[in-house]
Amino acid sequence: MVEIITIGDELLIGQVIDTNSAWMGRELNKAGFDVQRITSVRDKKEEIQDVLEKASMRAKIILMTGGLGPTRDDITKKTLCEFFNTHLVFNQEVFNDIQGFLKGRVKNINELNRSQALVPEKCEVIRNGMGTAPIMWFDYNDSVVVSMPGVPLEMKLAMSNSIIPRLKQKYQPGIIIHKTVLVHNIPEAVLAEMLTLWEDALPSEIKLAYLPAPGRIRLRLSARGTDGQRLQDQIDEAVDGLLPLIGDNIYGEEDLPAAEIFAGFFQNTGKSLALAESCSGGHLAHLVTSVAGSSAYFKGSLVTYSNEMKQKFLGVKAKDLEQFGAVSPQVVEQMALGALKATGADYAIATSGIAGPGGGTDEKPVGTVWMAWAASGNKVVSKRFRFGKDRERNIWRTSETALIELMQMMKKGEI
Amino acid sequence: MVEIITIGDELLIGQVIDTNSAWMGRELNKAGFDVQRITSVRDKKEEIQDVLEKASMRAKIILMTGGLGPTRDDITKKTLCEFFNTHLVFNQEVFNDIQGFLKGRVKNINELNRSQALVPEKCEVIRNGMGTAPIMWFDYNDSVVVSMPGVPLEMKLAMSNSIIPRLKQKYQPGIIIHKTVLVHNIPEAVLAEMLTLWEDALPSEIKLAYLPAPGRIRLRLSARGTDGQRLQDQIDEAVDGLLPLIGDNIYGEEDLPAAEIFAGFFQNTGKSLALAESCSGGHLAHLVTSVAGSSAYFKGSLVTYSNEMKQKFLGVKAKDLEQFGAVSPQVVEQMALGALKATGADYAIATSGIAGPGGGTDEKPVGTVWMAWAASGNKVVSKRFRFGKDRERNIWRTSETALIELMQMMKKGEI
What we know:
2 copies of one chain form a homodimer. Chain A has 3 domains: about 1-170, MoaB/Mog-like domain (Molybdenum Cofactor Biosythetic Enzyme, Chain A), CATH 3.40.980; about 175-250, Alpha-Beta Plaits (2-Layer Sandwich); about 260-410, CinA-like (Maf protein), CATH 3.90.950.20. The radius of gyration of chain A is 28 Å and the shape is elongated. Chain A has helices at about 10, 20-30, 45-60, 75-85, 90-100, 110-115, 150-170, 190-195, 195-200, 230-245, 260-270, 285-290, 305-315, 320-325, 330-345, 390-410; strands at about 1-5, 35-40, 60-65, 90, 120, 125, 135-140, 145-150, 175-185, 205-215, 215-225, 250, 275, 300-305, 345-355, 370-375, 380-385. Chain A is α/β, with parallel strands linked by helices. In chain A, the strands form 4 sheets. A 6-stranded mixed sheet of chain A has the order 2-1-3-8-7-6, sandwiched between helices. Chain A is built from 16 helices and 17 strands. The interface between A and B is large, with 87 and 87 residues. Strand 2 of chain A pairs antiparallel with strand 2 (about 35-40) of chain B, so a sheet runs across the interface.
């Protein structure tokens, strides 16, 4: 069992988001270690000491980051000395590293820099490959306390190269295998009901978690034990059991953003893509182009926010805009077909909706979105969606849904 | 004093980064409350209970997020019942809200949805404006425990609209006034050096924080005390002192995203805007359309990812693409002028660059971005930027810089 302690006022006032803990949790988990608690405290000696004492009663492994800088407000080292009843000693090797690191960066090495070479006598020093703060490893009884800098790159290097390998050697953790199944178009409560029997039948080694995002749910299965092959088989069997229940709603089996799942699929088809966006306002193009390599299949997007532009660039008929409104199957289908024609792409997606907060009517409330998908040969399919009231969320859901739907329709040969 | 407890296995295994705590810390700080500790625990009853007990001995205000979903792994509600020695009762108002929220989203409301209307008898329910999980407020002695959903949008709405106002009323923290000055185009260390004397002269009531983001720095001045007028005067005076030092680099004086600062300025000019995007890939259009009301001035964006599209929609000359490459002043200026002509807008912005990770050369390394700004009457200005190696960050910096630069040039009459 592991506990993480992150230290620094900036975390508590929200100036910095603690991304270190999540990274450490992920890497430790992969290595077979469970993090049971993460605590963030201010740069105050009594508070750090309190957390350290309590954590050491619960966990065998305590990993700390932060509070190791040369300035006055950094007091982790002093606190560790008191905790382990030891004192600071000058370490020539650390000082050599500091000199090497600062060479060419500062004119003179000052007292503050020199003070970083003072380390608690009872600890084993792990060299910091990227900065001036030494990493301190304390062994006591069967437990370990490690103190690392809060700078993410320095922490990551130390964790990957030294700390995780040492922990594995010392504690010989079991094997843990994760599998994430991506599900769309089913509300969480409905999904949970559909999966009740399946969930009850899961072997005890497998733990299930629902991770919901707007319009999507990630189902995470984690298997733990000592026999890797057996765990993998159990996971595979569990995932196979999902297919007859919710197969149509599964759009991916890797823990990746929707845009990357789509890119992985679409790139392999060898086809090209164009977009015609109204309510998604460029965000759909952004999702597509956020994935490196998209220029291989992405022609471009016509973000036609005004009706005038919809006519000019996509050939939408003025009378249809007039009669049905921009948020209609008639218009969105013309947009998709127009994008195909204008760009010569193999597939096109069009969006038109009311993102909010204004613009809603009784018939078409905020959150109403029409989407169309077109393929060469004048094939076109359109669907209506009713999202929520939040503009940002509506834009996100429109873009992600547009990509997932196209992928699912192409897989089933529906377009 | 406040403690935050975030609950969920996904936080401990690092599948989700705890961004809620930082947001809460920031907002609480603005309201005059100090967060002293943040603890993340798994969905385990004994662990939640343990954290809650210890926190309640240290802090008067405990804010919890997570573990309120309808599925089995969510056990916060049950844990709170045990902690407060109470039991769950059916709440008709919550159920009505759930019905309203799910209307049109699910066919039938099932047992799991219904179970979300069960709330501890001893708590006061705060309505969730965006989801099905009720928010629970427990008063005991002089202390408060609040349990909120972990979904960021739901938590933020509840915090802003209900919880922070209630906490302020109950605990009357002192007066705290914040002012944020938005600065671009100066590196943090240079800015800090330029402001040394100004900073030394700040009155003791004012605390200064540098909040850096790629390419921009938010300078936050916070004044805390009891005399609101005096604090406001001190803040105003401090900001006045900044103008002669870095006036040209200040692009806003409100803590808002660049897109909103731009929208507030541009909407008032009564002019219209069009975009021609290559490396920003739709993200620039997304920034513009992320602000409600943008349809009043935004014509659209031609996201021309391929050279073919740049020629067809923007009239870029094939020989210039050939001779100078797509990432060149010649091409980006033609893109901006082409967007003006194609859309009839008053102003246009064009972007073309190498977002990475691939595509860099010695002459044009990854991060090289050309931008152009055009105005009716064939006026056009172009500039080159050298950003970094990270694709996502390059896209962000391109979009934000494009908007800030146009605004600053328009203010100075340079375009």
